[in-house]
Amino acid sequence: MTTPLPGDFALTKIRGITGRAISAGQYLIGDGAPVQHALIYIGHGWIVQAMPGGAECIPLEDASPVVAWSTGKVPLTAAQRVAIAHAACRLVGTPYSFLDFASLALERFHVRPRWVRDYVASTGHLICSQLVDVAYRRAGVELFDDGRIPGDVTPGDLYRLITERGSRG
Fold it and tell me: For the chain, what percent of residues have pLDDT higher than 70?
C-alpha cells in the first residue's frame, strides 16, 4: 500500500449509479479511465475534495477507495507539498458545477465556443480534477505541459499522467 504525503493526489472509483453515470460520460467524450474522482491529501489523515455541495475537507477513511496515488510519480519538494496542501485547504467551500462537465465535453469534441470556456473559467466553480489542477498551479506546480488552459483536466487525464510517469520509471 502507498503511504501518501501531503500534496499528493489520489484517484478513486465512485460506486453505484453516480459512478456508472460519470464513467459512461467519460467514455462518451473519449476519456475512459478506471477512475471517476480525484482528491488531495493534506496530511494527518485528511483530504480535500470537490463535491456537488462544495469542496470539503474530510478524513481519508471517509473517502471513496483509492485506485492510484500520485506519490512518487509527481516529483515535489517539501515546500511545494506544503503549498499544495495549503492551496487545497483554501479551496474548501468552492462551489461545484455540472456545467464544467459540459464544457470539458465540448472541448474534447473541439466544438467549445470561447464564450463557454470563458464563462466556466469566470465562475470559480471546480469539479474534482479541476480542484487538483488549481491547487497545484497555485503552488507553482504545472501538472500538464501541453498548453491546456487551467481547468481543462479530467480524472482520466490525471490517471494517465501518473500511470505514464510510473511506467517510465
Answer: 91
Rounded distance between C-alpha atoms, residue 146 and residue 163, angstroms: 17
Compute the distance between CA of residue 111 and CA of residue 90 in angstroms, rounded to an integer: 33
Per-residue pLDDT of 111-125, as tens digits, reads 889 898 888 888 889
User: Would residue 53 be called left, alpha or beta, if left means φ above 0 and alpha means ψ between -120 and 50 degrees?
Assistant: alpha
Spatial distance between the Cα atoms of 98 and 126, rounded to a whole number of angstroms: 9
Q: What is the pLDDT of residues 13-59, one digit of tens each?
A: 877 777 667 776 777 677 777 898 999 999 999 999 999 899 999 99
**Do the domain assignments include residue 128?**
yes
Secondary structure of residue 48 in the 3-state scheme: strand
Residue 63 lies in a domain: yes
Assigned domain for 133 exists: yes
Number of structural domains, the chain?
1
